[in-house]
Write a structure and sequence with these properties.
The protein is of the alpha/beta class and 631 residues long. It is built from 16 helices and 28 strands.
Length: 631
């Protein structure tokens, strides 16, 4: 057979890609490294007759020069586009490819198999309706197969093709195929994956890819292509309540105000009553505008601009709804797939993005981590890259959402590290821990402003941060005494003193350090509410936690003081002998030696106590308070 011959689809049957009336199926390929995912996708592209002649010529040439098939066509080269992928014979990035048959159009995401690229796999699967999970017939179901299948379950993908590949390398053994499929079906049942079609294949040879294999007569089920053409993955998204997350408020002139977005679920018609969440304000749809013109109705998946009959406040991140109200909460329980190389830290602050809404979020607790091999729930304090867990989150403001199992668009989110701007995790919302409307701020007759006037001062937090031995406590104590002499009301929260009491249960892990800062910030905020000046002397090594402390009080009430004494000077002083212990290895994870300290980037005050006396440092801080009307 020549390179350009296709054994399964005649040229006259080749579909045209510009035909738009065929349904589209989005699917993802996943599995462990070297299981043949890219080869299977390449074979589908080749046999679908959608490749141009120059692509076929390039494939033949590259197969001879950089291929891994001994000069035969290396179909993986149709998908592996990065130089590093071709050099190593692996997939690194997600590769999206398009092909079609007479019955259906396909968008396939070919994802990497290496454990370190699990985040890429989750990204590729996030918009898929079906997954093709490849298994090497020689290895069977392995850890990465389980990890990917667990992620598929979390992402709501319940249609799976189990392609047991490389059957030629085990002599087309039907018993081995049956054993692998039985093991996978047991696991799939535990994960809630309800529809699994198991198919034995040889991806390079095309066995059971498009045409039935003559080398495995014992298999009588569908080929991969036949199953992909016929499987019904349609959900009831159009039958669910109407939801439209507002992406953009379109205001080209004073005469027009429209709200743009993609309908996440349900249908809507001009004249229908809707509500704006989270405010709950009611109105009606005046017009429905689409790229193709004005319409009377629109349904899930369509991008529209809606105009309303009433002038009410609607902003990006709000959700237009009809029917039963979605959930609104600032306390969530969610499944997390951790992406970042830096481990998850409970108590650390992240940016949560759900649809068009963004809000600050803190992972308050990690309820459990998933043991991939056994799928058991195990106790853990953190999640490392590519691990899966179940966590509770606290948000800065109420989020409009639905459980992921009911609405993928409104139940999924990502967590972004606000410092590095890396995507830290993907999340799938399970439930609300409380309704945001259940708990209200109790209005008090005597508030912060009243207490501040009585004390003739402006309340604030003076947050002293720096290395051990920098002089934080010494300077803070002197400022406290000076404020007392001036008749001001202040309280000093020293890090060591707090560890004798409210923080005595905390160690020095990243999670415990974050909790140490969180508790201290809460106490400082209470002092500010009492109209006082709170002084905090705490190493607080991470910018993220210090930013969380700043946001706990109002703008202008947090003054970060960086005691920027150089490490060499701090180590020379070593007032508690801690640096000597750290250098000898007797005190691991010591800040400045084998544990990082993230210096403030824009503190209100910077003091180097190796150059400035404690009295001079004190007077600089007092002068700052006077100049900015805190005293």
């Amino acid at each position: 057979m020549s390179y350009h011959e296709a054994p399964t689809i005649a040229a006259s049957d080749a579909p045209r890609l510009d035909q738009d009336d065929r349904p589209t199926l989005r699917f993802v390929t996943c599995g462990s490294v070297d299981d043949g995912k890219s080869t299977l996708v390449g074979r589908l592209l080749y046999d679908s007759k959608t490749l141009l002649d120059d692509q076929l010529d390039a494939l033949a040439s590259e197969s001879r020069t950089v291929g891994t098939t001994g000069g035969d066509l290396d179909f993986a080269l149709l998908v592996d586009g990065l130089q590093a992928e071709r050099e190593q014979g692996i997939t690194i990035d997600v590769a999206y490819r398009f092909f079609a048959t007479k019955l259906r159009r396909f968008i396939v995401a070919d994802t990497p198999g290496h454990a370190q690229y699990t985040r890429n796999m989750a990204t590729g699967a996030s918009n898929a309706d079906l997954a093709v999970v490849l298994v090497d017939a020689r290895k069977g179901v392995i850890t990465q197969t389980r990890r990917h299948s667990h992620i598929l379950s979390l992402l709501g993908i319940h249609h799976v093709v189990l392609a047991v590949n490389k059957m030629d390398l085990i002599g087309f053994d039907g018993d081995r195929f049956a054993s692998i499929t039985a093991e996978y079906l047991t696991m799939a049942g535990q994960l809630g994956i309800s529809q699994v079609q198991c198919i034995p294949v040889v991806a390079p040879g095309g066995d059971n890819i498009v045409a039935a294999s003559t080398r495995m007569p014992w298999y009588t089920g569908p080929t991969v292509t036949a199953y992909l053409e016929s499987v019904d993955v349609s959900g009831d998204v159009s039958q669910r309540p109407f939801r439209l997350p507002v992406q953009w408020v379109n205001r080209p002139n004073a005469e027009f105000r429209g709200f743009c977005g993609r309908i996440a679920s349900g249908t809507i018609a001009a004249g229908d009553s809707i509500a704006v969440r989270p405010s709950g304000r009611q109105t009606r749809i005046a017009r429905i505008l689409t790229p193709g013109g004005e319409r009377d109705r629109a349904a899930a998946g369509e991008s529209v601009t809606l105009t309303l009959t009433d002038e009410i406040d609607v902003s990006r991140g709000d959700v237009l709804t009809a029917g039963p109200a979605p959930q609104v909460s600032d306390q969530l329980a969610a499944h997390l797939v951790w992406f970042d190389d830096e481990a998850m830290v409970a108590g650390r602050r992240y940016l949560l993005k759900c649809g068009t809404a963004s809000t600050g979020a803190v992972i308050t607790t990690l309820e459990h981590r998933i043991a991939i091999d056994t799928m058991a729930h195990e106790d853990a304090a953190t999640l490392d890259a590519n691990q899966i867990g179940y966590a509770h989150l606290s948000l800065d403001r109420p989020l409009v959402f639905e459980a992921y199992r009911d609405n993928r668009d409104m139940g999924s989110f990502i967590l972004v590290d606000p410092i590095s701007h890396r995507t830290a995790a993907a999340g799938m919302i399970d439930l609300s821990l409380r309704r945001a409307t259940d708990i209200h701020w109790q209005r008090l007759a005597v508030d912060k402003s009243v207490r501040a006037r009585l004390k003739q001062q402006r309340p604030c937090v003076l947050w002293f941060t720096g290395l051990s031995g920098a002089g934080k406590s010494t300077i803070a104590d002197l400022v406290d005494r000076r404020l007392a002499e001036l008749g001001r009301h202040a309280a000093l929260l020293d890090g060591d003193n707090l560890r004798h009491g409210i923080n005595r249960d905390l160690g020095f892990s990243n999670a415990d350090r974050a909790e140490n800062v969180r508790r201290t910030a809460e106490i400082a905020a209470l002092f500010v509410d009492a109209g006082m000046i709170a002084l905090v002397a705490l190493i607080s090594p991470f910018r993220n936690e210090r930013e969380l402390a700043r946001q706990r009080v109002q703008a202008g009430e947090f003054i970060e003081i960086h005691v920027a004494t150089p490490l060499a000077e701090c180590e020379r002083r070593d007032p508690k002998g801690l640096y000597r212990k750290a250098r000898s290895g007797a005190l691991p994870a010591f800040t400045g030696i084998d544990h990082p300290y993230e210096a403030p980037q824009a503190p209100e005050i910077t003091i180097d106590s190796s150059e400035l006396s404690t009295d001079a440092a004190c007077e600089r801080i007092i002068r700052y308070l006077r100049d900015n009307h805190y005293l």
